Amino acid sequence: MKKYGLALGSGGARGAAHVGLIEIINKREINIEVVTGSSAGAIVGAFFALYPKANLVRVFDRVIKKNIDIINSNFKILNKKITNFPKMIAGKSFLQNDFVYDIYKELYGRKRFSECKIKLGIVSYDLESGQEIEITEGYIIDAVMASSNVPGVFPPLRLGGMQHLDGGVLNPIPVNFAKKLGANYVIASDLSYQSNNNIKYDNGLDFLLSIDDNKNDLMNRYELKNANEIYKYPLTYSWVDFSAFNDIYIQSKSYIIEQLEREGIQS
Question: Where is this motif: DGA/G (predicted)?
Answer without folding.
Answer: 166-168
